[in-house]
Amino acid sequence: MDGEWDYVIVGAGTAGCLLANRLSADPASRVLLLEAGGDDSYIWINIPVGYLYCIGNPRTDWGFRTREEPGLGGRAILYPRGRVLGGCSSINGMIYMRGQARDYDQWRQLGNPGWGWDDVLPLFKRHEDYYAGADEMHGAGGEWRVEQQRLRWEILDAFADACVAAGIPKTDDFNRGDNFGVSYFRVNQKSGWRWNTARGFLRPAQGRPNLRVETSAQARRILLREGRAAGVVYRKGGREVEAMARGEVILAAGAIGSPHLMQVSGIGPGEVLRANGVEVAHDLPGVGENLQDHLQLRCAFKVEGVPTLNQRARSLWGKAGIALEYALTRSGPMSMAPSQLGVFAKSSEAVETADLEYHVQPLSLEKFGEPLHPFPAFTASVCNLRPTSRGTVRLQGPDPEAAPGIATNYLATEGDRQVAANAIRLTRRIAAQAPLARFRPQEFKPGPEFGDDDAALARAAGQIGTTIFHPVGTARMGTDPMAVVDARLRVHGIPGLRVIDASVMPTITSGNTNAPVLMIAEKGAEMLREDAR
Predict the structure, then answer these.
(1) Is 311 helix (H, G, I), strand (E, B) or coil?
(2) DSSP secondary-structure letter at 429?
(3) Roughly how many angstroms between the first and final C-alpha of the chain, as a whole number?
(4) Where does residue 530 rank: exposed (0-12), middle (13-18), buried (19+ CB within 10 A)?
(5) Distance from C-alpha of 424 to C-alpha of 446, rounded to nearest angstrom
(6) pTM of the model
(7) Is residue 254 scored above 90 in pLDDT?
(8) Phi and psi for 377 in degrees, rounded to 5?
């Protein structure tokens, strides 16, 4: 397995694991998969609630932080990204969400043929193993398990009924092209265990003699020979190794890692590279630009007369009961995705399709990583699904192992501030509906003191807003001067180099981003095989 490879893949995350599976299925192709993190044997990866112990843990998370964000009142926030086999699928919320048909039709209309909803739906279905079996919208028998959640909460059922009272219908499936409505999320779990891409895609392929997986292998730069991507230099065990690619180098390191590796390799905005001590090999101004993310506004309400996780997890007896329930039945709070109930709604009558997503939880806390509040409460986090604010990912000097600078620019546009104000108003309107009245909800985040005018609610959004972990777009596909890859995911001006991950999205999808990344990888693998013929 020494010598040249047909494909060198950087990043064994959501996209990389699928790519390794698909490309190594051809026994004539020699595939090298590089992962900076370790394996995914850590127990808290497999137990759904274990995301609490994976995010912020250097064993599984890069531990990035943003700059101090003006839109968040000058706060810098944690920006988790998976650093382990399975990548973000090993530490994320496990929510299976494709987005809306209009998302992909817009990609096509932006000049990317082959990326419309009708084009990509078969790719979603190809690797899906849907709990209810195959139909015109779902696949069965694939590697990517999708199941119902294994618990319900009275407070969440009441919130769903309040949504109906507020004019948001119930739905039984968010993944049929129009996700308007309220329902419990479907999750990537199998019998109460997290199902990550390492288990789904990489494990079945690891016995193939033509696939090598290197963990603790930090990519340092892309090797360029006569303007072509010829391989990757990576560090492992204190020494640098050159992995040469006679076929293609594939970046699957995500919306932060892929543009950063290009930049430290001399591919990116020339002025930015020179200012950071990197010689420009190819001036490509869009690398690291166009960062988009979903900002969640964590609205929270105290309640009375209904159990929430705040009470159940407060005592040792409660925690013991939760552990026993999971041990015996693989259900209960330890099987929970971080958010259980989902709602897709419209911020105003002016929008054509839902532009808000709620992640509703039977718990509350000051911020991630801190203890639950000592009183019963629920949180209704709401995201603007189609933000117009754009951020950047930029190298901070020539050292490839120095963390990049991340500027999200949340709430930088008037449109985003208006949607945020409308989202808080809608949340208050839902909480005021009759189905929740018996629990006497009292808003404490952001709090009634902020009133109802647009400016005050925009300030409130800045105080309670944080990432919901969906960065995309930093190597977007297109044909204009700021595009980084073409519709076949080839980097403009660098033969032999492709980006196949969340960074290629021209615009963010209307929902959670893990399933769309798998679709992108499925399509990217198909393109690689076609172009190698």
Answers:
(1) helix
(2) H
(3) 22
(4) exposed
(5) 9
(6) 0.97
(7) yes
(8) -165, 165
E runs forming strands in 169-238: 181-184, 189-190, 193-194, 211-214, 218-225, 228-236
> Position 173: which residue type?
D
The DSSP call for residue 352 is S
Question: Amino acid identity of 274?
Answer: R
Which pLDDT belongs to residue 2? 61
Compute CA distances 234 → 14, 220, 239, 287, 483, whole Å.
Answer: 20, 5, 8, 21, 27
Element (H, E) at 407: strand 405-407
Q: What is the SS3 assignment for 111? A: coil
Distance CA 514, CA 96 (A): 7
Cis amide linkage into residue 307, ω under 30° from 0: no
d(CA 443, CA 458) in angstroms, rounded, equals: 17
Per residue in 284-307, pLDDT (tens digit) is: 999 999 999 999 999 999 999 999
Q: What digits encode the pLDDT tens for the residues 143-184? A: 999 999 988 999 999 999 999 999 999 999 999 999 999 999
Marked catalytic residue, from 294, 359, 470, 492: 470
DSSP-assigned letters across all residues of 48-110 = GGGHHHHTT-TTTB--EE---BGGGTTB--EE--B-BTTGGGGTS--B-----HHHHHHHHHT
φ, ψ of residue 242 in degrees (nearest 5) = -100, 125
Q: Annotated catalytic, 359?
A: no
Q: What is the DSSP string of 135-178?
A: -SS---SSSEEEB--S---HHHHHHHHHHHHTT--B-S-S-SS-
Inter-CA distances, 92 with 63, 81, 110, Å: 14, 9, 29
Q: CB of 68 within 8 A of CB of 406? A: no
